[in-house]
Fold this protein.
Amino acid sequence: MDFKVIFGDIFLEDLEGIVGFIGAENPTAARRLGEMIVRTGESLSYLPERYPRIRQRPQIRRFIVRRHFKVFYRIDRGSRVVEILRCWDARRGHNPSLTRGDE
């Protein structure tokens, strides 16, 4: 049975910022990147545990798109939901906050 994938508000804000920034220089590349990130997120409905856990936060997993863009998510096996939390440009340095209180 498949999982339901939910894109969180913070993720959507992150993605909008990344796509908007890239789109100022190259709208086609920005659109393709945004579509690739969303498609990969949607694919988590099947085998969501295929990507690695974050060592410091084992309940959080992440996948990387085009070397620089980290997407963080968590799986709720009980309700069969994958919640996409953040999308982060790794060139910004540190990882984003992932705690519920900071989201």
Notes: Helices lie at 9-23, 27-42. The longest strand covers residues 57-65. The two ends are 29 Å apart (CA to CA).
